[in-house]
Structure of Transporter:
Amino acid sequence: MKPKLILLFLSYFFVINCVAQETVIFTTLEEVYAYAETNSISFRNANQQIILVKYQTLASKLGMFNLKGTGSFTLTDNTKLNPNFIPAEVFGGPEGTFRTITFGQKYVSNFAFEPQIDLINPYAMAQIKVAKTNEQLTAVTNLLTKKVVYESISAAYHNILSYRWQIDVTTKSLSNAESLVHFLQNKQKEGLVRSQDINITLANQLLVKDKLQQLEIQLQQQYNGLKILCDINPETAIIITGNENSVSDIQLPIKATGDLLQRQGEWQTKYQQAILRADKRWMYPTLNLFSSFSWQESNNNNWFGTNNWFGSNYIGLKVSIPILPEVSKIATVKKDRINFEIAQNNWNHNKLQDQINNIQLELDYRKAYESYKINAEIEALQKDSYEKNLNIYREGIISATDLINSFDDWLNSSLKTVALLASVKYAKSKIIISNTIK
């Protein structure tokens, strides 16, 4: 019996653990942002890009010296040496005759090492500035990507809140519709209500139920969209505990101060300028320090037979100056000038675009805010009208059709009000995103 209890106990905790692992809980929008920055592929790729450009900067710093060194080791077997004819009189022979002599040894071993380094290389030095500027450009571009992802996450998050609030409203409306049906059915038993009125209220109840089902499906679609943005497993459940349906945090005015586009344009201009300066230095002279160190061992018996190595080395300076122009280099400089001018034009355009975008964000927020305030008043009026019409209907003064129309007006205004509240909060979040991502 005890083993079964232990097994049941372990199984219970295993199931609980699995459920916990398959659920992600968010309380605020900021928690969703934090989760996305840790798990989203977009942010991971952005981090890898930062690492990549830092390596490129390091490579350009090391490449400034262009340190190179080639080493070689050779083993030579002189299977047949060339004969040389030397005057015989050198060896005491008769004048006018020659003696055949072979110079050299059969086995020769050579080891050589030839390092060189650039002491002054204007083009390579300029590449450091290019790499550093590219670091800043990549960082700003990643911030723009972050802004876009944040806005998409905020849209999905507030859509989820909107559908949740609409579901709450529709659920209460469905309960009211069911109560109205029961009320009329009881009146029908007393012979006070026509069957047509029952049909009207039943049809209205079904319409509300269908609206509720559609909202629940749309809510799940928004959850799936949020999973894509945050790279959450499809099987994982998302729970958003924060309701955030308070209106105390929405107020006018809110100032938008985003400037990412012009910052990107600024660094793009500096990047193109650095490239232009670097490519113009192809004609500058370079100063190079070169050297060579070599050792040789030779004998007629075998390789390494004597183990007597004789060394030689040299060191020198070399100045290299391009004399004839290279067409490709000249064309590259011309292209760089054009790209630099284009970047300057885009920078000026981005300044205007940032200013207009900020104005647009403020207008979007004001529009949503004013619309929400008006619809909240309309909702209160529609609710009051429905409650009064319900009392009048009970007295038999208006028809069931008029009552249902009043009910639908109240429901639609309630749905629109909570949807507009979510729109106000989303518009505000876009301004906050624009102001804080710097």
Q: What stands out?
A: The first helix runs from residue 2 to 21.
